[in-house]
Predict the 3D structure of the following.
Amino acid sequence: MKVLVAVKRVLDYNAMPRVKPDGSGIDLSILKMSMTPFAEIAVEEAVKLKESGIATEIVLVSIGTQACQDVLRTGLALGGDRAILVETDLAIQPLAVAKALVAVCKNERPQLLIFGKQAIDDDACQTGQMTAALLDWPQATFASKVELTDEYVTVTREVDGGLETRKLTLPAVVTTDLRLNTPRYASLPNIMKAKKKPLEILSAADLAVDLTPRLNILNVCEPAVRKGGVIVTDVAALIDKLRNEAKVI
């Protein structure tokens, strides 16, 4: 059984983003980049499925610039078998990613496609759902538990009222939530082995897909600075501030 895992290169969650002086976006020139944490969870789940003897091959896919090879190599070090980079210099948006992944799936024919539920740069939370719709595959989002057989994938997901379990026929799309697993660290020997694993580079023309952005960013600005909190001496002072300053009562 082949498992395809979509990974994305984003600003590292420990890095402090800075807005470009012209307000056109985030300045990523000197900041650390890494695989988005939800994609790490997706890779870990695929590796666990292979270790259990259910999955036979793990293929990692990323869409973006040549620099995305580093997150693909990281995924290979974590247990992926080979990787595919759809290289483009365009600003990638969810629908474009979905179209590219559909084209890759038609070539690779995986039985399971795993995403992180969202990327931490735009928090769009759309790509998995769009890809499932374009492929016309069943989908289960925000998975906290995944059980896979030769014909079905059973997904448990947390909802407001408790737990919901869905049984999907394969092929299917699954997006992962935080509680699904804890990603492992890549060992030095596996990092060295990952350098020799296959990494195929394709273009949008190779896949016959249009990755042109459909949305334009008009302006990016930092959020307004919040005022510091104050300590009040008694309840009367609290009520006074809520009434006269905050205007909430």
Notes: Residues 195 and 202 are 18 Å apart (CA to CA).
